[in-house]
Structure formats: C-alpha cells, structure tokens
C-alpha cells in the first residue's frame, strides 16, 4: 500500500517542483493527498502525481505551440520590416549616387569658372601693366 503513494520529495522530483510548492498545492487542494495518521507526513497517490504530470506536460505542449505561433508572427513582422528597410536603403543609395554625380558636375563647373576667372584676372593684370596712354589709345 505504501508503494501506491509518493512522498512530497518524490513528488517534487517527478513534477520538477520544490517540496514547498508541493505542500502549497496539497493545502490548496490542487493536488490530491492526505496526511499519514502515524507520522503526519503527506502521502500523495501515484495516480494523482502522474495525472498532474500529464496535465502539466499537455499544458506545456500547448504553451509551446502558442509560443511558436507567436514567434512565427514576430519573424514575419521582422521580415516585412526588413523589406521596408532594404527598400529605404536602396532609395538612399540611389539618392546618394545622384547627389555625388551632381556634386561632381558642380565641381567641374566650378573648375571651369575658376579657370575663366583666372584668365580674366590675368587679362586685367596685363591691362593694368600697360601705361595709361596705351590703355587709353589701345596701344
């Protein structure tokens, strides 16, 4: 008859809980058990322990399934966000390329303008180096 029952320690090991938690479950009536009239220790029927184990296992499987669905939804949302980010990155790369091309054209135009300004400055210096009368009469 004693073989048909578990102690709180054995029950705790089987269910993966602490002995204190097992005692809480017994006192709350969430786990079937009775006190031994001779030593006042808890005796927990094996069938109650195994039923509790099966119940917690099936709940764990259901929770894992729900967790898996939740993670899959998160992965899908992240994929969508990644697609949006990649699209923005591509647009940014195109804009950067366009800006670089425009900057290069502006630099080239600035170089041409600088050359023209240098030529005009040189012409001005040459004109100033001529005497007043030569400038006046084109000589």
Question: How would you characterize this protein structure?
Answer:
This protein has helices at 8-15, 19-28, 46-129, 132-137; strands spanning 5-6, 34-35, 42-45. The chain is mainly alpha-helical and 139 residues long. It has one domain: Multidrug-efflux Transporter Regulator, Chain: A, Domain 2 (Orthogonal Bundle). The chain has a three-stranded antiparallel beta sheet. Strand 2 and strand 3 (42-45) form a beta hairpin. The model has no long low-confidence stretch (mean pLDDT 89).
Radius of gyration, CA atoms, in whole angstroms: 45 Å
Give the % helix. Answer: over 70%
Mean pLDDT: 89
- Helix/strand order: EHHEEHH
Strand order of the largest sheet: 1-3-2
Number of DSSP strand runs? 3
Query: Please, how many domains?
Result: 1
What's the tally of helices?
4
Question: What features would you highlight for this structure?
Answer:
78% helix, Multidrug-efflux Transporter Regulator, Chain: A, Domain 2, mainly alpha
Quick overview:
α1 packs across α2.
List the helices and strands and how they pair.
Blueprint: E1 5-6, H1 8-15, H2 19-28, E2 34-35, E3 42-45, H3 46-129, H4 132-137
Antiparallel strand pairs: 1-3, 2-3
Helix pairs in contact: 1-2
